[in-house]
């Protein structure tokens, strides 16, 4: 079993839809949770960063973490064609210090928003 | 402020050869991490360098090695290339305590 599971999709939605992306994980040591967006042939770009359980909102994006269920979500409101990309969840047990760089990623969900 | 830059962007090698990939970290970032991303998969952690020393390694064999230089730039070396080494190699830089990794565009390696 992988430490982080993410439905690879693909997911296709009409413009303006609410998108829900999810990951589950098995390692209870994970405390820091991130969502990255990766356009084709580009490096991942950090969208959201959350510590422990709770919600975080940034514009059209909302990240939710439920550590009791080992489940994280990313919601995209009013989705746009420019949101079409691969979305990767990532987690780590520690932030800061010299071990932060070790992120464990999900497989990525391919999202297409059509006009 | 310049971002993370990687070179080369694409390269083709044959089995058994050796390859060196290079990364310049974002200004002010002293920690560099390398990831391998196979097609259709999420990135997998190879190793991290901090103050010119390897600090943390993922499940990769010793033929994957690296260096970090005093200016915080870094190299990833892979010896005895195998077909399964074909992937996008990503470099990410960070500063301890910030919680953010900034990725480069990657180097796409094809092993024939």
Q: Could you explain the architecture of this structure?
A:
The complex is a heterodimer of chains A (115) and B (112). Chain A has 115 residues and is mostly beta strands. Helices cover 0% and strands 53% of the residues of chain A. In chain A, the strands form two sheets. In chain A, strands 2, 4, 5, 9, 10 and 11 form a six-stranded mixed β-sheet that branches. In chain A, strands 1-3-8-7-6 form a five-stranded antiparallel β-sheet, with no helix packed on it. In chain A, strand 4 and strand 5 form a beta hairpin. The termini of chain A are far apart. Chain B is an all-beta fold and 112 residues long. In chain B, 0% of the residues lie in helices and 51% in strands. Chain B has no helices and eleven strands. In chain B, strands 2, 4, 5, 6, 9, 10 and 11 form a seven-stranded mixed β-sheet that branches. Classes of the chains: A mainly beta (115), B mainly beta (112). The A-B interface holds A 4, 6, 8, 32, 36, 41-46, 49, 51, 88, 90, 95-108 and B 4, 31-33, 40-45, 48, 50, 55-56, 58, 90, 92, 94, 96-106.
Q: What are the salient characteristics of this protein?
A:
heterodimer, A: 115 residues, mainly beta, six-stranded mixed beta sheet, five-stranded antiparallel beta sheet, 11 strands, B: 112 residues, four-stranded antiparallel beta sheet, 51% strand
Largest sheet of chain A: 6 strands, mixed
Low-confidence stretches of chain B: none
Q: Enumerate the spans of chain A where pLDDT stays under 50 for 5 or more consecutive residues.
A: none
Radius of gyration of chain A: 14 Å
* Category from helices, strands and their pairing of chain B: mainly beta
SSE ordering of chain B: EEEEEEEEEEE
Helix content of chain B: under 10%
Describe the structure concisely for a colleague:
The complex is a heterodimer of chains A (115) and B (112). Chain A has 115 residues and is an all-beta fold.
């Amino acid at each position: 079993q992988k430490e982080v599971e993410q439905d690879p999709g693909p997911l296709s939605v009409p413009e303006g839809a609410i998108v829900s992306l999810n990951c589950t994980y098995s390692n209870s040591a994970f405390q820091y949770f991130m969502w990255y967006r990766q356009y084709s042939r580009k490096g991942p770009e950090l969208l959201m960063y959350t510590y422990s359980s709770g919600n975080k909102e940034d514009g059209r994006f909302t990240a939710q973490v439920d550590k009791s269920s080992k489940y994280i979500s990313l919601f995209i409101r009013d989705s746009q064609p420019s949101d079409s990309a691969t979305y990767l969840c990532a987690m780590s047990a520690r932030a800061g210090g010299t071990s932060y760089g070790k992120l464990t990623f999900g497989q990525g969900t391919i999202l297409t928003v059509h006009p | 402020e310049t971002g993370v830059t990687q070179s080369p962007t694409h390269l083709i090698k044959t089995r058994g050869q050796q390859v060196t990939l290079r990364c310049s970290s974002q200004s002010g970032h002293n920690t560099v991490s390398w990831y391998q991303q196979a097609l259709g998969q999420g990135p997998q952690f190879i190793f991290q360098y901090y103050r010119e020393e390897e600090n943390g390694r993922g499940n990769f064999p010793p033929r994957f090695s690296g260096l970090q230089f005093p200016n915080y730039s870094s190299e990833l070396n892979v010896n005895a290339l195998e077909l399964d080494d074909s992937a996008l190699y990503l470099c990410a830089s960070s500063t301890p305590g910030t919680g953010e990794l900034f990725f480069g565009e990657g180097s796409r390696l094809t092993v024939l």
